[in-house]
Amino acid sequence: MNCVEDYVKFLYKWIFENCSNDMKLLAKRIDKTSMDRLRSVASSTFERLTYTKAVELLKEVADKTFETKVYWGIKLTEEHERKDVSGSFNLMSNYPKEVKPFYVQVNDDGKTVSAKHLVLPQVHMLH
After folding, report:
1. Burial of 52 (C-beta count, 10 Å sphere; 0-12/13-18/19+)
2. Distance (Å, rounded) from C-alpha 12 to C-alpha 42?
3. Measured between alpha carbons, how far apart are the two ends of the chain, in Å?
4. Distance (Å) of CA 87 to CA 44, 48, 101, 112, 116
5. pLDDT tens per residue, range 70-104
6. What pTM value is reported for the model?
7. What is the DSSP letter of 109?
8. Among 57, 71, 92, 124, which has the minimal tally of Cβ within 10 Å of its Cβ?
């Protein structure tokens, strides 16, 4: 998880140092807050959450806008991941083995796998 966090921060810092004109254009034409969000990723500490804890937090803040009901065992969707449950960026681990590929190592509990997932709720991807 530390490697993932360090690598993402490195990439975001590299973008600012090497692509600042592109980022200014993006901010001007598409998303005025994009540069602030990217700076936030580069300077924040990522919270470590287990899948179980993330589901508990999502249930606490669940509202009627979720199309998919939150319960342990579901594959978290983009709508779930965009909900900022911890106040920071998240690295989640220990997903149910049913929602991850067969080749991911099963943990000793027999229910979860050692997969990791990076969630940046305030950073929206452009498609």
Report:
1. middle
2. 6
3. 26
4. 11, 12, 29, 25, 19
5. 899 999 888 888 776 666 788 889 999 999 989 99
6. 0.76
7. T
8. 71
